[in-house]
């Protein structure tokens, strides 16, 4: 599934200082301590304002934002300017990415200037940024034909710590859908000594904003021609996410701003309500859903024998998947306005907007009503701020209301099952674009009953403890998604390699494997494996020790601090059932059989049973986990629950050989 660049806050995102390289969660090294001590004693006041404060902020941090100023000036509903200036001290190699800035722009924005300077630990100037040092590259994605997105990249990395970088730039903007989302502390192990945001609005033009975790409200003033809104933060120590804790965005101060009125490429709109924003999208889409008469006739013939609306949807969706492919072409207003349905019909390609609009037109041709829907897509992506209408979306899908239920169509995928949201767009809010305007609705949420892993193993052991196993596993819902990717994107030799990395079993070789898929509202993949197992059982004298849980041993227990400060957040529910039959060689009798194990907690349930019938062990393991938010004090119960499961999963059945 593809995620378009549509509706994202491209030019004014607060994360322009961050690279695409993820931060690693490793302990800080202290090789820079001596340099830091010298720097604190000798650095000019420009870099050492408040040494005591800096020492506290530098502790356990990779970098410290010494000062950061963001000034956003709105000239009119169709133009504005962003000025950004920052000074950052880099404390170790894990903070080096803060010494590089990425300034995106496109046909609707212009970078006026970028300047930068690097200083060593003594405050001595090392380098001043030259124009020749600034790279200007296309940010076209690999699946795009053409986009107007570009980015200017400037780096002042140095290899002796600590060092300090200063950057300043200005961007003028003609796309006024986007106002700043201010988030100075945008990663873990980052401190902020001082940061400010100022938004300057023409008198009589109101600013809409949402404050989260801010110690102080906005300071408002008026200079006669502009209404000024100002926020300031000081002395923010590093923030750390706790295991199973809320996302960083819930923990740090931030301000989201948005217009009431705006204009993009001549299209005026309002954003005060979700309804208003939907009306603007309707303006962009108007008249772009007309199909050629020949295509309409073909669709009516295709669905002539369909007995239900859902059957019609499936037929049209399959036709669309077979006829089109995802390609992003986004220029100017095309980043938000779809291609005409007739264009997609003739060319056979389009982005998420175009393909959703095309499918909507095809469904209308056979008498099925559907709605274009904006959504913030991505696995693990937090939901939008529903209380604050603004451009928080990055993708478009299609909603098809049904008498009993709603179907959601991911129109960028050639393999997805009709009606399945999954981890990419499930369990979050979407903005339906109805004839009356925008309306927020929730997409499908998947629980333990939908996200299943049901496995059956039949194992035959020999006298040496080796064995052969036939394994059949059914994966459904979110649990089948990784296999879906393997099935459709990897070659057979790559699939086999992937299985060797993923299968958790004693030393094994894959003799044979296969996948099969059922496309339903909750899709299913069946995986069949034939394995050769080495030392599946342990021999000691005349005894044979067998751990019947061969493939589903739980191993993860999160670190537990003395005091938990944030809620416990579980974002995925699932149900795993393993049924294992192990055939033991003749001449062995059971000596020890574990008791049935049952564990229950607010987070889920676990049950394991053991039975021996002659030379056959029958082991059944069931584990079900829910999702939700739980009080911080329940974290100790989660750790206890996982430890009990690990202990139960390690249980062994002991056989002893009968000696004549």
Report the count of strand segments.
39
Mean pLDDT: 90
User: Given the helix and strand composition, which structural class is it?
Assistant: alpha+beta
> CATH first level of the largest domain: which class?
Mainly Beta
Helix content: 10-25%
Determine the number of helices (DSSP H or I, runs of at least 4 residues): 11
Detail the poorly predicted runs: 7-49, 141-145
Q: How far is the first residue's CA from the last residue's CA? A: 64 Å
Radius of gyration: 29 Å
Task: Estimate the strand proportion.
Answer: 35-45%
Strand arrangement, major sheet: 5-4-9-2-1-11-14-13
What name is given to the CATH topology of the largest domain?
A: Immunoglobulin-like
CATH architecture of the largest domain: Sandwich
Largest sheet: 8 strands, mixed
Number of domains: 3
Shape category = globular
């Amino acid at each position: 599934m593809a995620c378009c660049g549509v509706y994202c806050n491209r030019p004014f995102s607060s994360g322009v200082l961050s690279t695409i390289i993820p931060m690693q969660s490793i302990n800080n090294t202290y090789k820079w301590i001596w340099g830091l001590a010298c720097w604190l004693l000798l650095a000019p006041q420009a870099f050492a304002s408040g040494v005591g404060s800096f020492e506290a902020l530098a502790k356990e941090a990779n970098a410290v934002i010494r000062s950061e100023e963001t000034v956003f000036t709105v000239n009119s509903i169709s133009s504005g300017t962003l000025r950004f200036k920052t000074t950052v001290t880099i404390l170790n190699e894990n903070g080096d990415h803060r010494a590089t800035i990425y300034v995106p722009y496109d046909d609707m924005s212009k970078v006026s200037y970028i300047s930068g300077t690097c200083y060593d630990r003594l405050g001595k100037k090392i380098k001043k940024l030259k124009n020749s040092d600034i790279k200007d590259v296309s940010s076209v994605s690999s699946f795009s034909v053409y986009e107007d997105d570009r980015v200017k990249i400037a780096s002042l990395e140095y290899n002796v710590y600590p060092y300090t970088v200063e950057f300043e730039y200005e961007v003028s903007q003609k796309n006024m859908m986007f106002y700043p989302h201010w988030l100075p502390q945008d990663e873990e192990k980052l401190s902020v000594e001082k940061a400010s945001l100022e938004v300057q609005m023409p008198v009589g033009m109101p600013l809409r904003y949402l404050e989260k975790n801010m110690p102080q409200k906005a300071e408002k003033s008026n200079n006669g021609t502009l209404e000024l809104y100002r926020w300031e933060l000081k002395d923010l120590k590093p923030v750390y996410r706790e295991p199973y804790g809320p996302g960083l965005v819930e923990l740090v101060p931030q301000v989201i701003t948005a217009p009431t009125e705006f204009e993009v490429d001549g299209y005026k709109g309002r954003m005060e309500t979700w309804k208003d924003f939907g009306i603007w999208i309707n303006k962009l889409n108007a008249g772009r859903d007309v199909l050629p008469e020949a295509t309409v006739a073909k669709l009516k013939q295709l669905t002539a024998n369909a007995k239900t609306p859902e059957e019609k949807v499936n037929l049209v969706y399959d036709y669309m998947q077979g006829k089109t492919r995802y390609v992003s072409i986004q220029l100017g207003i095309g980043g938000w306005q779809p291609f005409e349905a007739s264009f997609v019909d003739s060319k056979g390609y389009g982005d998420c907007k175009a393909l959703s609009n095309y499918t909507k037109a095809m469904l209308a041709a056979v008498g099925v009503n559907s709605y274009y829907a904006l959504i913030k897509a991505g696995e693990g992506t937090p939901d939008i701020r529903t209380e604050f209408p603004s451009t928080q979306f990055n993708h478009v899908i299609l909603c098809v209301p049904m008498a009993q239920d709603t179907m959601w169509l991911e129109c960028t995928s050639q393999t997805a099952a009709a009606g399945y949201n999954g981890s990419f767009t499930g369990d979050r809010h979407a903005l339906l674009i109805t004839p009356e305007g925008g309306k927020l609705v929730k997409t499908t949420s998947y629980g333990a009953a939908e996200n299943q892993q049901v496995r059956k193993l039949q194992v035959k052991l020999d006298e040496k403890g080796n064995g052969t196993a036939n394994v059949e596993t059914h994966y459904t819902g979110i649990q089948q998604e990784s296999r879906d990717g393997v099935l459709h994107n990897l070659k057979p030799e790559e699939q086999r390699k992937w299985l060797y990395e993923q299968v958790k079993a004693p030393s094994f070789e894959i003799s044979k494997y296969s996948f099969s898929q059922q496309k339903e509202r909750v899709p299913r993949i069946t995986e069949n494996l034939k394995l050769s197992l080495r030392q599946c059982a342990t021999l000691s004298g005349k005894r044979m020790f067998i751990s019947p849980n061969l493939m589903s041993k739980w191993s993860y227990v999160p670190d537990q601090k003395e005091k938990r400060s944030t809620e416990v957040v579980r974002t995925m529910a699932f149900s795993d059932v393993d049924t294992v039959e192990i055939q033991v060689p003749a001449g062995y009798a059971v000596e020890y059989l574990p008791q049935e194990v049952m564990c229950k907690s607010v987070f889920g349930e676990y049950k394991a049973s053991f039975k021996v019938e002659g030379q056959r062990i029958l082991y059944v393991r069931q584990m079900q986990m829910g999702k939700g938010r739980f009080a911080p004090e329940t974290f100790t119960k989660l750790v206890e629950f996982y430890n009990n499961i690990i202990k139960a999963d390690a249980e062994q059945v002991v056989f002893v050989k009968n000696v004549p």
